[in-house]
């Protein structure tokens, strides 16, 4: 397992799609605060409000959409070019192969999810002259929660990438899915109590609660933490079962 993780980590570090996505996100994080400052002025904007209203809200789309592109190239493409067939015939169990791939891919998704909260907040703080900085406990707490949800979403993306073994199809499907699914699930939740329960305990809804982490009670915080952990484990197991039964060409 250790050698599998090292091999996947090496491939992730060399993955051009990851570095391209990170560079684009960093560029946006460094340049976008300038537009806000020129439009509204640095004196009237507080960093904590900017962090909650712009950065965390915007990171919702980054975390759900950008890693889809990485999944298409890092996971799905390996089926089409024959790499996955070579790995599967190496003698390692498919369970270990899948979880090594999932763990390393989750690290890539986490790196993507942290660009806005760290780089964006840092650049905004400089442009806004550190006016009204967020509480350090709240900031670190939201970072930790963001990492948990990035891993949870990554487990779902890895599952889809295993189903669609072509990178183009995988990316296209996942982008449409993650744009529309939570809205569809929300509408269904108003019709049937089962869908309401699924939506209330889904990562799609719970992730939106990160911005309110500083004002939640203990029960709400426990749910906010447990949901992504359970999602990662359950989807990871489902993905590994699918991978074991999958015919790799």
Automatic annotation (TrEMBL):
Parts of the chain that traverse the membrane: 18-38, 61-81, 102-130, 136-159, 171-189, 224-243
One Pfam assignment: ABC2_membrane_4
Keywords attached to this entry: Membrane, Transmembrane, Transmembrane helix
Presence of keyword Transcription: no
Keyword Magnesium: no
Protein's name in the database: ABC-2 type transport system permease protein
Species assigned in the record: Siminovitchia fordii
